[in-house]
Amino acid sequence: MNPFLSLPTILLVEDNPMDLDLTLRAFSKKKLSNHIDVARDGEEALAYIARWEAGEKPPAVILLDINLPKVSGLEVLRQLKAHERFRRVPVVILTSSREDRDLKQAYDLGVNSYIEKPVNFGKFMEVAEQIELYWCVLNERPAGS
């Protein structure tokens, strides 16, 4: 049996191909062991809720951009946090938005963390390492999460 199948996944919700590539490269360089699922817009992200309801295990953490096509990241966050079974899935906003209103609204909706995307690849690698260490290794999740 593959030992990595038991590791929790990470759901990365990102529409920008360059940011997606940068994030995946940073995780790869840090030798992240967790599988990463990718949703390229808010609609794809919301489709994961149905997959989880059908028995697929929810991720350890969702990395969510705010500025997404079809459905905004904040709307994805609102729907996820309103869901009875999946509201405890940690969500980290990973965005280029420095707007105070976005930050406030994200926390009002129940985000667990808000990180501005680093422009520098070295800094991005540090963020990737911290995300894996904290959300996938150190963070305690309720049973059944």
Tell me what the structure shows.
By secondary structure, the protein is of the alpha/beta class. The protein has one domain (9-138): Rossmann fold, CATH 3.40.50. It is built from five helices and five strands. The chain has helices spanning 17-29, 42-53, 73-82, 100-108, 121-138, and strands at residues 10-13, 36-39, 61-64, 91-95, 113-116. A five-stranded parallel beta sheet has the order 2-1-3-4-5. Helix 4 (100-108) links the parallel strand 4 and strand 5. It is globular, with a radius of gyration of 14 Å. The protein starts with 9 loop residues before the first strand and ends in a 7-residue tail after the last helix. Residues 1-5 have low confidence and may be disordered.
Low-confidence stretches: 1-5
Residue fraction in strands: 5-15%
Total individual domains = 1
The CATH topology annotation reads as Rossmann fold
As an assembly, this protein is: single chain
Structural class: alpha/beta
Q: Strand order within the widest sheet?
A: 2-1-3-4-5
Rg, nearest Å: 14 Å
Name of the level-1 CATH class: Alpha Beta
User: What is the 3D shape?
Assistant: globular
CATH architecture: 3-Layer(aba) Sandwich
What is the H/E string?
Answer: EHEHEHEHEH
Share of residues in helices:
40-55%
Number of helices: 5
Strand tally is 5
